[in-house]
Amino acid sequence: MKNFAIFLRYTALLFFTVIFLVPIFYVIYNSFLPNRYVQTWVPPSIWTLDNYKRIFADYPVWRWYGNTLASTVIVVLGNLIFTTMSGYAMAKLKFPGREVIFNAFLGSMMVPFQLVIIQLYIQLAQLQLHNTIWSITLPFLSQTMFIFISRQFFFSVPGELIEAARIDGLSHAGAFYRVVMPNAVTLFTTIAILNFNGTWNSYLVPSTFINIKERLTLVVGLQMINQEHFIRTSMTLAGIILLSFPVMLFFLFTQKYFVQGVMASGIKG
């Protein structure tokens, strides 16, 4: 009976693996085909890199990659620093108005971003930051969701550990950086993965705040290509691969920490 249960488990896993891999295989396969052969089975001799070559030849894709990578790294680093510090303060420090501040953070999560984006654009324009990388990074260096995740995680850190560090002469900042951070790898990885994915694939913000072709992010630039070559399905699929490949690689190398971090931040507290 036990062997049969294991067999059913692995059969189910294999079934769902195939379901998730088929769309990925479909996109990759068709991205290597001339447009007239899309959605048909053809021998490898017909496969071509022309779709990718044309994208790189006609558009500043490497520049878009650089813009996207730079903005993503800045935003991720900002959230790794500021949201974890805020979460630690909300969980472990006692100060007047702590609950009020945290409830205000939670309340801000209920406001759709679409309601504030116009006002945010006006403020950035007044500061002459629109059409710059700072317009898509500075307002997003600290995001409430990650403050909440950090707070929940730090509730699980024993208070005695922090008190011992304080008795040894460390300040709260020293205890955070020397004692708490080394034990919060799963938290930092979880925030990095979620934030990396969200920032890398963000469309609304960069398409609103940046309208200079050379300063576009990858997702906005590829959407522009899609609009210009809407009937060329194979080129669109090649753009999807260019956009998705870095995210898949990042998640592949960090997935075990991601699962641990979600469990730790979501269950303990």
Oligomeric assembly: single chain
Tell me the number of strands: 0
- Rg, Cα atoms, Å: 23 Å
Tally the helices: what do you get? Answer: 12
Distance N to C terminus: 38 Å
| Name of the level-1 CATH class | Mainly Alpha
Please give the CATH architecture. Answer: Orthogonal Bundle
- Classification by helices and strands: mainly alpha
Q: In one word, what is the shape?
A: globular
Mean pLDDT: 85
Please give the structural blueprint.
Layout: H1 2-31, H2 50-58, H3 61-92, H4 98-109, H5 117-126, H6 144-154, H7 159-167, H8 172-180, H9 185-200, H10 204-209, H11 218-228, H12 233-267
Helix pairs in contact: 1-12, 2-12, 3-6, 3-9, 3-11, 6-12, 7-8, 9-12, 11-12
